[in-house]
Amino acid sequence: MLDKIPSTEELAALVGSSLYDVWQKICIMIDEKYDMDCIWNKGGKAWTYEYKYCRGGKTLCALYARQNCIGFMIIFGKAEREKIAEL
Prior knowledge:
With 87 residues, the chain is of the alpha+beta class. The chain has one domain (8-85). The protein is 38% helix and 32% strand. The chain has helices at 8-15, 17-33, 78-85; strands at residues 37-42, 49-55, 58-66, 69-74. Strands 1-2-3-4 form a four-stranded antiparallel β-sheet, covered by helices on one side. The longest helix has 17 residues, at 17-33. It is globular and about 40 Å long.
């Protein structure tokens, strides 16, 4: 967990205003549909920040931020992986 969570202004300055708008829209969609805990972390070697959505101690998805770039990861369960394998 981060010692200091980035402010809206800090995150927008890091990723840029257009990508910050995308970040916000993704977060709003997730927040409206699901009740999950949110955790800020360091982004490791490749990213500055990680923002994880968790439920029951498991990460379900995460957003990543670095200079002029955002990333989004979805973690699929067994049933979802089987559906994708059928495609």
